[in-house]
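Side project, low priority. Logging it here so it doesn't get lost.
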Amino acid sequence: MKHIPRKRFGQNFLTDGAIIDSIVDAINPQAGEPVVEIGPGLMALTQPLVERVGKLTVIELDRDLAARLRLRSDLDVVESDVLKVDFRAIAARLGVAKLRVVGNLPYNISSPILFHLLEQVDVVQDQHFMLQKEVIDRMVADAGTAAYGRLTVMLQWRYAMESVLFVPPGSFNPPPKVDSAVVRMIPRQTPAQLDAKLLETMVQVAFSQRRKILRNTLGKWLDEKGFSGEFDLQRRAEEVPVAEYEAVAAQLSQK
């Protein structure tokens, strides 16, 4: 039975065979690995993935698609909103320390999904996601560029990331109105030790008024926190490297 893509779920189904092969090659799944796919949809990625690993855990919100997926004995189906999924519980149920997480993420909630996984990064071996190219550009941006922002700092603190594949709109049905890309995210082995919520608040304050120098935004916040270290406030938020934000947050986290 044909499935009609549902706009409320952000469904754009991948149909380009060459792109699918390239994504699976980038993931390079091995037999027996604990791979979790977010949003399997019509199984464009699911089928080649399960052929390589043997058994695949899939997270699907769409009730009709979940029912269809359950007909497969080689799929472990979690019918849920991914933002409510406990990845630590999945790892425990599978009896593994780390999961490999993949998926064509719904573009309308991609950032919340990334932050949800950030909170559970201790059970993640790596992540490969198809996202709006503009979002990936922000994720991998360098300081001093227009794409550099809050998302950049929060994710680069915890992951090494690279854009590995460009995906044009014509690779989907229906075609989205934006370009897409695939990002590889590998958790850092020794991230800066800091309070994640504090870093998030600090970065939010810093980028709240991008055109102003930090003395007028972050400077006041740092004074309130009693920060006494060295930090050049005569810059805009996008000019400060991730490592400097980490250093300030780490110092404040010790107070």
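Brief comment: Residues 1-10 have pLDDT under 50 and may be disordered.
Revisit when time allows.
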